């Protein structure tokens, strides 16, 4: 299989290395808006680089992985589907809700499968938590807690186009909660705060946020995120039931310290999401190869991505207007 890779930035370079290591992938062709960056990534990994996405499509790949900045996702995804190429696209499918719905309408009914990159669906801890819920071992679930704590904010230039903390960061938690519990979010109440760099306030964003989600069976899910977790990168999901509880993401690299005596991490915290989810990124691209080969359905079709985006949109409205918002209110 020959795979085209659009985007050679941080996550694109990571995907390039992963794809190179998959036995079924015979060739990886890399393109980027900056041809020099594509050549640099390809050169380090022994891959082929081409000058731009037109050349990438002309190279005749069997499948396409889209890891460009968000603004280019929609156009590339529609182009891939129209060309009959199975496509993997990093979240989000598009920068905004209306554009996402337009993209889904444009590709609806197409034969080419699409997989959206919500890598937590392939994280061993999240998968184990889902299995525990589905088996009934936890009893009935009453509380879920999900956190995404970045050790430092992204570059200032990223903030204006990020979509905001809930759409850019917490959307992974929203998808994770839906994936693990198997339930839909009915209503949200969200709040945000800024105590860090002024760039967040300047662009109507927040550097820290929390949301209380009420699921359709009455389960409560608390989601928290921040750009300023000095202890290190920390992503966990805890599920509490009437019989037992489980946690994903708690190990000797979790940046937690007890106030008194107790568990102390034995290793250094993960530097960021590429390290924390290295196993998950490999598993999701391996799954995409199966999807592209026609051996399996997409484990995260665009419609699933849209549901998480609806929750993020509801949280953003709730934060701005200081009120509870139902997901039905934002559904198109």
Automatic annotation (TrEMBL):
Annotated GFO/IDH/MocA-like oxidoreductase domain residues: 127-246
Sequence ranges assigned to domain Gfo/Idh/MocA-like oxidoreductase N-terminal in this UniProt record: 1-118
Keywords: Oxidoreductase
InterPro entries: Gfo/Idh/MocA-like_OxRdtase_N (IPR000683), GFO_IDH_MocA-like_dom (IPR055170), NAD(P)-bd_dom_sf (IPR036291)
Family annotation (Gene3D superfamilies): Dihydrodipicolinate Reductase, domain 2, NAD(P)-binding Rossmann-like Domain
The keyword Oxidoreductase belongs to this UniProt entry's keyword annotation: yes
Family (UniProt): Belongs to the Gfo/Idh/MocA family.
Protein name, entry field: Gfo/Idh/MocA family oxidoreductase
Organism name: Actinomadura rugatobispora
Organism taxonomic ancestry: Bacteria, Bacillati, Actinomycetota, Actinomycetes, Streptosporangiales
């Amino acid at each position: 299989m020959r795979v085209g890779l659009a985007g050679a930035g941080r996550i694109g370079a990571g995907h390039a290395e992963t794809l190179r290591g998959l036995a079924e992938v015979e060739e990886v062709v890399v393109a980027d808006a900056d041809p020099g960056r594509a050549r640099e990534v390809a050169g380090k990994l022994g891959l082929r680089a081409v000058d731009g996405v037109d050349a990438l499509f002309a190279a005749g790949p069997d499948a396409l992985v889209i890891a460009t900045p968000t603004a280019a996702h929609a156009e590339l995804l529609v182009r891939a589907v129209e060309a009959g190429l199975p496509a993997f696209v990093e979240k989000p499918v598009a920068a905004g809700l209306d554009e996402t719905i337009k993209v889904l309408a444009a590709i609806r009914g197409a034969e080419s499968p699409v997989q959206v990159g919500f890598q937590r669906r392939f994280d061993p801890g999240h998968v184990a938590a889902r299995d525990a819920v589905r088996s009934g071992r936890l009893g009935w679930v009453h509380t879920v807690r999900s956190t995404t704590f970045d050790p430092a904010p992204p570059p200032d230039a990223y903030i204006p186009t990020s979509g905001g903390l809930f759409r850019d960061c917490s959307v992974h938690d929203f998808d994770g909660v839906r994936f693990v519990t198997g339930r839909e979010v009915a209503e949200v109440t969200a709040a945000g705060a800024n105590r860090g760099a002024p760039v967040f306030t300047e662009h109507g964003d927040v550097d820290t946020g929390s949301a209380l989600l009420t699921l359709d069976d009455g389960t409560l899910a608390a989601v928290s995120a921040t750009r300023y977790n000095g202890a290190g990168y920390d992503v966990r999901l805890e599920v509490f039931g009437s019989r037992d509880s489980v946690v994903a993401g708690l190990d000797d690299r979790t940046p937690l310290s007890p106030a008194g005596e107790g568990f102390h991490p034995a290793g250094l915290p993960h530097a960021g999401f590429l390290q924390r989810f290295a196993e998950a990124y490999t598993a999701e691209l391996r799954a995409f190869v199966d999807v592209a080969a026609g051996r399996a359905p997409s484990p995260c079709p665009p419609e699933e991505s849209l549901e998480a985006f609806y929750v993020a949109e509801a949280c953003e409205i709730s934060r701005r207007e200081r009120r509870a918002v139902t997901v039905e209110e934002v559904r198109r």
